[in-house]
Amino acid sequence: MRGKAIRIMRAAVLTLGAVGAASAQTTGGAAVDGLALASQRQCLGCHQVDARRVGPPFRAIAERFQGRPEAADHLARMMREGSRGQWGAIPMPAQTRLSDIDARRLALWILSLKDAAAD
């Protein structure tokens, strides 16, 4: 029973995080918060918003996953578990120190960049 309660609480926290990110996007704070979080978590060592570095630019990731309802969950999972062959020969190492909540916040921010480019 305890495991089920933990899963329910984790889902509730992720949902609240998504709601918070959505409300930040409507107020224009998501871009600043997302970029700050990406900087704090050392994402900018390999990625930039508009230019390729070691990994793809965040905006290109947003464009690739545009319109996919599972995109935020997929991106958050790829951050935490790593991936290979998605964007070329250099693999994305697993970011095991990145919390589920921060991975989800980063994924939502990255996906919001597609909307920001259209403005």
Automatic annotation (TrEMBL):
PROSITE patterns, per database record: CYTC (PS51007)
Residue stretches making up the Cytochrome c domain: 29-114
Listed InterPro entries: Cyt_c-like_dom, Cyt_c-like_dom_sf, Cyt_c_ID
UniProt cross-references to SUPFAM superfamilies, sorted A to Z: Cytochrome c
Annotated signal sequence range: 1-24
Coiled coil: none
Domain of life: Bacteria
Organism: Castellaniella hirudinis
Keywords on record: Electron transport, Heme, Iron, Metal-binding, Signal, Transport
Protein name: C-type cytochrome
